[in-house]
Design brief:
single chain, 135 residues, mainly alpha
Length: 135
């Protein structure tokens, strides 16, 4: 799997895992209806506590990205993904505000910040193909 966790990061492991799974969904690396490894398997593969994986899976279930079934296990939401509704937009604004403020404080131009965001968005939307070279 494409998951890489930074054990030295200040970002909690469950959040890193959840963020990377959402990126996999956004980029198409993970398809709707695709099964994911069990909590136990993924925890063993990543060398982390199974409660960490469970917390990430539960958070993504609550956000509408995953379904968890007793018999089928964990699968990527087979229907449409959650929409960018007003609640999401408010959370996004809240989360981006400190980054925008720090960018201003560090003297980064609005154009540079927007270009960086545009680049990240496009990289996620159009990830490099497997076996290809990345820039």
């Amino acid at each position: 799997m494409f998951i890489e966790l930074d054990l030295q990061s200040e970002v909690p492991l469950y959040k890193q895992l959840a963020d990377q799974l959402v990126e996999g969904i956004a980029s198409g690396t993970l398809s709707p209806g695709q099964p994911l490894p069990s909590v136990r398997t993924l925890a063993a593969d990543l060398g982390i506590n199974l409660h960490t994986v469970n917390k990430a899976y539960q958070a993504l279930k609550q956000d509408g990205f995953l379904e968890i079934h007793r018999k089928q296990g964990v699968i990527v939401q087979p229907g449409s993904q959650p929409s960018a509704d007003e609640a999401f937009r408010q959370r996004l604004q809240r989360d981006l505000r400190p980054l925008a403020a720090e960018s201003v404080a560090r003297g980064m131009s609005e154009a540079d910040l927007l270009e960086l965001l545009r680049t990240l968005y496009r990289q996620i939307q159009n990830p490099p193909s497997k076996g290809g070279t990345s820039s």
